[in-house]
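Model: Ready when you are.
Researcher: Fold this.
Model:
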Amino acid sequence: MDLPASSELFVHHVLFYPKANATDADKAKLLEGLRMLAGVPGIKLAHIGTPAATNREVIERSYAYSWLCLFESAADEQAYQVHPLHDAFRNDYAVYWDHVVIYDAIGALAGREPASAA
């Protein structure tokens, strides 16, 4: 796996919650859109997931899909936000979710020292 070398990796994580009446076909269309979205340049790693079959009280499993992508920098993530494929995803696939929850974070990969401020 070719992970970014930057000590200030940008992580963009989105949880997609389906509409109450979402069908399997609706979920398949959303998956189609996420796969298309993975083609945005600047994404260093993209992961599409579904809730794992873990069983602990603190685990949230009411989402349909998890979209996790890594960028070398906040600037790369901002370029992703305004990319035509991202716009097309929002415009064409938003009908397949009720709401989303987004977590954006920046920091070094565990075990890597941040760049020194020399």
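Researcher: Now this one.
Model:
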Amino acid sequence: MKRRILLLASVVLLALFIPAEAWAQGCAMCKAAVESAEPDQAVFGGQQSIGRGLNVGILFLIPVPYILLFLLFRKKIMGFVKEFANAQG
């Protein structure tokens, strides 16, 4: 037990000392598009910035893995929900 706690503490401390640039890695194409864009550049025929367009695209892509996981594990999830609802305490 103490070994797990020590390992977890070591990983957390190591993570604190990693520079922010290492944590903020993203798609190279997205980063290049945002860095090379001019502030007043129009995207997709509208008056929005490239960064805003990328953020909206990311928001559309976020739910897909969660929906797929729910569809794959729905029996286990619903079983857990029913067990939780019937719990006494």
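Researcher: Key takeaway?
Model: Residues 63-85 form the longest helix (23 residues).
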